[in-house]
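Hi there,

I know you've been waiting on this one. I reran it after we fixed the sequence typo, so this is the corrected version. Both the input and the resulting structure follow.
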Amino acid sequence: MSAPTTISSPAVLTGSLPTVPAPRAEHATARPASRLAALDGLRFLAALGVLLYHFTARETDAWGRDLAEVAPALAPVATYLSLGPELFFVISGFVILMTAWGRSVPDIIGSRIGRLYPGYWVAVLATGFLLLAIWPGKEITGGQVLVNLTLLQSMVDVGHVDGVYWTLWVELRFYLLIAVFAAFGITRRRVLAFAALWPLAAMGARVLGWSDGVTWLVAPYAPLFAAGMALYVIHRCGHAVLPWLIVAGNAVLVLAALVPARMDSLGRNSVAPPVALGLALALLACIALVAVVALSPVNRWTWSGLTAAGALTYPLYLLHEYWGLYVIHLLHDRLPVWAVLGAAIALSLVLAWLVHRFVEKPFGPRLRRATTRGCERLRDGAVQAWRGGRRLVGVGWAG
């Protein structure tokens, strides 16, 4: 696995869990999709785990001393909490399929762009300003900030302003696959076939060293997304042997693909290196937790606090690392460790709320509508051009 050295994440980070249209007649026995507030809460807990990892277990100079001395009891646990991205990917497979089922491609693209970019743009600019003008916690350039605004920096070999952005590039490629899939029509049978075959193709590309295939088939994370998709089929259509076999098969692929890679990356960058068995159990827990939340009575929880926490997850993820480390840098020699951590987390939460309240809520829906309309115009223009071309060909043959 080409795992980045900074572990953090988020798709499902990009917004609250939606309600989608009732199933088509093809699935008359399927249950209508509904909001799962507990998944919002699970996303938020995963994000907090990532915060704790970055602040207490990932190598940093912000504390001004050996990190092993900062939180020796918390760091070994936080190392496994760094698997928040893997949990996000499973949730994303579930949620993005939920949002895409029964919707048009322009709707899907507009929804994802509207949720992904407004908060991301502000986060890139805010973190870039911090690192360029206030605190040189990481060496970056102004040009790098501008390229990062596209979210396509990985395609042109430009480094991330904040290492957490690596997960957004993973998510963006998954969105693209789902949009293509939706163009052919989403059905239960097709979803199960896709969730079974796509991860195998991605792993095959990785084994063969086919770099383009690895990129666009989203290896090695495809099994996590696919497991979430299969769990959504179970949630929507009921328990059956085949989707559970697909979940189990993808769990095996997850262990084969990610345990060695995470052992390497976390071993190099964490003050408390993990053990292979612990990583394997934590990765399996990522799938199991989504299954429990989606398929047990937990999925009927409706507490509004869970939804509110979920709304903060994406901006919290985007902004926490360097702004939180900056607070630690300022306070580490003035306050006890627990107070410094509390201040770093508190600032991260305040920034997340500000971005959600004043950026995502007012501007996200506008960007979604504009993007959807633009995609619809492009689609309609392409259809008209295609029909016009067929008519010209017909006239040519007739002549």
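Quick highlight: Residues 337-398 form the longest helix (62 residues).

Best,
R. S.
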